[in-house]
Amino acid sequence: MPNIPALITLIVYSIVLFGIGLWAARRAKSQEDFLLGGRNLGPWVAGLAYAASASSAWTMLGFSGFVYLVGPSGMWMIPGVVLGKFVVWLVAGHVLQSSSRDHNLLTMTDFLTQFASPVATRWIRILASLFIAFCFSFYVAAQFQGAGIAINDVFGTSTTTGVIVGALVILAYVFLGGFLAVSITDTIQGMLMAFVAVMLPAFAFVEAGGWAGISTMLAEAPATYSAPFGESVGFAAFGLAIGLAATGFGAIGQPHLVTWIMATKDTPSRIKGAIVAMGWSALVFSGMAILGLSARVIFGAGAEPEGVFFGLSNALLPGVLGGIVAAGMLSAIMSTVDSQLLVTGGAVSHDLG
Known about the structure:
With 353 residues, the chain is mainly alpha-helical. It contains 15 helices and no strands.
């Protein structure tokens, strides 16, 4: 039997997203509106939408499963993710925001070619657009697969059905409303992800016996699991921490993420947006770390790492909350895919002329 409350929750959520797309379609009057929302985003919308776009299914399924698998050593990723957002918004963001406004730049490729010769500009635009379309095609495909897995885990449908449903919802509101629709939906999705990242770990934490239960599990686990650097010591431990932290700095070169900074309305909004994005990331990643450790207590060491998120949801939550968790997972997927699809569309329509 399908989970009816969860199904109703997910249907209502999808209808809301589609409605936002229709609303935003009426307000996208120019290419700047469609690609950057008129450069008028406030700090909460820009910060939450950016954070949600930077954190796809790997945050909720992958990171929780990673901490479940390797233990506390996996948590070195958290300060790196927060620090990466600091660098993007408050160091590189100043130059990117001011330059994009002064020279009316609409895409990251515009930024890269603003001082290049006409011949170099043409080649950079071609290569950058091909790179964006090629690389994002794999990421988008992986996210659609994640949507299929999420829907299948909750409703027992096939993964193919889940992929089709998720793709139709995302494509509808992205290409109807452009950046404004993506901004609003990603803000909603960011709030929903934060709620799930607090609610589900809280249930799991209580079920695991709180800090006492987690401490007992760590004391009984192999030293390589409970140690702060896992199996690594000396320079290897230093390399482990730096390597995991470096994950957060990948956002500096992601065109679908720096777009949010170009779209903020002024410098104070960018600075406040940075605080929102960093706070959101600290909250969500910490919640997923607690979820992973709690799952180790509840399931032991034999569970599938990427399955512990939905395993705990199915075991601990009633139908309506299960539907919210499913919507939260789809939000993690949609919030990354929609911005990537929009940037890819901009690369083809604007950067290639």
